[in-house]
Amino acid sequence: MTEKTTTSPDKIELRADPVTRDIVDVADGIERLMGNRDLYARMLRRFRREYQDSTLPIRTALAAHDKNLAHRLVHSLKGAAGMIGAHRLQERASQLEQAIRTDSDDQRELLASLTPEFQRVLLLLDVLLEGSPPPGMPVQVPSRPLMEDAALLSHLMELLSHGDGAAIDLLEESSASLRVILGDAALQRVSEAIHEFDFDEALEVLGETSGGSGI
Description:
Elements: H1 26-32, H2 37-50, H3 56-63, H4 67-84, H5 87-101, H6 107-130, H7 149-161, H8 166-173, H9 175-182, H10 184-195, H11 199-213
Helix pairs in contact: 2-4, 2-6, 3-4, 4-5, 5-6, 7-8, 7-11, 9-10, 10-11
């Protein structure tokens, strides 16, 4: 029997992908940790492990009329969602937390609106951490690896070489990843050159950096 290989945190491809940002803002999560992708990957794994039952514990606490437990569970979820960049889930958890605290009548309605967003986050984490969704579970996000270091730099350099203004969008979308790849000093030089539309200068800096890093 072949043992399943688990991808180590430093091999996980975590990128500021605009398609998935509405569900989990990877760039924001990495920025919160000062660009530490390894730590962010561990946080994603911990979130996926601790919340594998989705909203079931909250639903059970509310059904048992255990207001204190329900409030504590939702409060913890709100904080954890914010740390990984799952902002829509964080907002829905905040709304439910407020409803529980004030004993509002719309608790069940808010829990119902939180559940599908929770599922979207968990499914996306399966894609990010494992590269594919669980068998039989449909996913509404691309089940593909996010851009690798070399691919990200290559794409940016291609845009710059063609004088394509989309380089500015890519720079902003992937600033956290580029900071990890290039370092603060080089990223600052590239950013200044691109925003001044000096694409040749930006290409020169990227060439020096990628050549020295082996990318």
